[in-house]
Design a protein that fits this description.
Blueprint lengths: L15 H30 L3 H10 L4 E6 H4 L2 H10 L3 E3 L5 E2 L8 E3 H6 L3 H12 L10 H11 L8 H14 L4 E8 L9 H13 L3 H16 L4 H18 L8 E9 L4 H16 L6 E7 L5 H20 L4 E6 L15 H8 L4 E4 L9 H10 L4 E3 L1 H8 L8 H6 L4 E3 L4 H4 L3 H11 L5 H13 L6 H20 L3
Helix pairs in contact: 1-21, 2-19, 9-10, 10-12, 10-13, 11-12, 12-13, 13-14
Length: 488
Amino acid sequence: MYLPNFKVNLNPLTHPMKRITLLSVIMLCCIAVWAQKAESYFNKVRNNNVLLTAFINGMPKGGDLHHHYSGAVYAETYINYVIDKDYYINIKTLDVAENKANTDDWYQFSALKSKGQLEDYKEKLFQKWSAKDYDNSTASDKLFFDSFAAFGIAVTPTYEEGMKEMKFRAIRENVSYIECMFGSIPCPVVIPEANDLNKRFISLQQQKDDSSSWHLIDSLFPVLMSKDITACGKKFYDEILLANHQKWNIDDDQFTMRYQTAANRNQQPVEFFKNLIVAFATAADPECKLVTGVNILSPENGEVSMRDYHLQMLMFKYCHNRFPAVKYAMHAGELTIGLVRPEDLTWHINEAVFTAGAKRIGHGVDIAYENKPYELLHYMSIHKIPVEINLTSNEFILHVKDDRHPITLYLNHQVPVVISSDDPGILRTSLTEQYVLLASRYKSISYKDIKTMVYNSINYSFIKDQSTKDKLKAALDNRFQVFESQFH
């Protein structure tokens, strides 16, 4: 074989390709060393809460995938709004109303201020609208879920302020992405025969007649669609999500936000299905680009949600068949021993995964009690169905923490894990604190494991546009390089 006599310049300082290769190798070596130094420092400080908090606070945290809008806004925003509007407060029940006749129990905030009592009632609202200064005077799960209705009067009119608040808080916390859940999209369409249909759905569940339930779901779908219920979703998207997203320039080089729509699991079957269709149709609408997926909300142990759980999973499966491109997460297994009967701990995550086909599981606390848990964990592992872990939320609502929490069970079975804040406004917490709790409570979890969870929060997001996801991952690479380089 004849080889031409090429003169090859092997001097890395003068040959362009060799220089690039050498610089790349040097850079990769530096990055690896920085990561090792960061891990070494992390191991040194993980038993000191304040040093660990400073470390985690500066660490890039990727995304927050389990994040409820109204529960993420701190109570200060809602309280300031009702005071600025000079609404009325019932001094016995602490209910707040826009208009009330002056009685012995109802006072305007201005009247309380003139009597020197405003600050006292602000503190009382903090304790009703959030977990601030929680004193065990009421059940923690009741306080948590009741708070949504209590501050509901202030949610819609503060959308602008709330979305801006979440963005700038995330940036300060080194969070680059939030996948924010909104509740059921308002849709006043009424189905006259709903009461009869609800009775039929309930009866079919009692008979365990899935075939007839499916047929009834299928017959109800065109009835609901004929009412133009999808217009409700487009209206909400245009007037609330898109309008505020654009007004506050939510997306920029530092931060990105996308949204999930949802249905309330404690609504009666027809109303639930209507809202579920609206949620799926909105997420499927190519004009609603910011809506990335669907979820299910409200207490899982509620009377209706326990009764209708299987039916609701069938409805999710049906909507998936109708809107196959839509991704959806599922609050499932947010239960623990004593909260419900033992047999009710055995099947909710199974149903969410195998019947509904959920792409992510939110909470997943009762996994150890589920029927055939190892088979379920194996399935979640091989099909890459991540679990959204919410440590403060699980501790406050369910009293589950430390080795009672199943996070290590998920990790031992290679189920992808993402760390989330759930409702940081109500719980008076942050995503930073979730990682601090993770590192301080579970010593077997390494810095490398934590970085994997951070990257999971982008990799398993429901972002529709791949270029946006790629941009977030590339930015996360750069953020970690900058962060870790300070420990050299």
